[in-house]
Amino acid sequence: MNKFGIIVDGYSTGAGFAKEFLKYNIQCIHVQSQLNIPKVYFHTYIPTDYYTHYIFESNLDSLVQTLEKYKPQFVIAGAECGVEFADILCERLGLPGNNIELSAHRRYARCHSSLPISIVGRFKAS
Residue 112: in which H helix or E strand, if any? Predict the structure, then answer.
């Protein structure tokens, strides 16, 4: 059975997250939180590293329903622009995550740069 994780806005320094998770047999789904990838990040996005890709347009319920089918084990932000939306998806998918009331404060902090290491530590390479 496939294991899945979700990366919201996998750009910039988060562009390598999906490839790292593949080392642990975890396929990543990319969720784009905005209709267009911000120009500053466009060149850093690597679509071939992802199992599939979804763009949030306006219907959160529909996106959550689609993502639930994959039974994701986690949701993380790849770039700072995805922090708030990653927190929302975590809450809606019933996954461990951060308090969404503090999302805006965290968005501009650099505290999430080590997050993938702590999440990957829960899985064994096979």
Answer: none
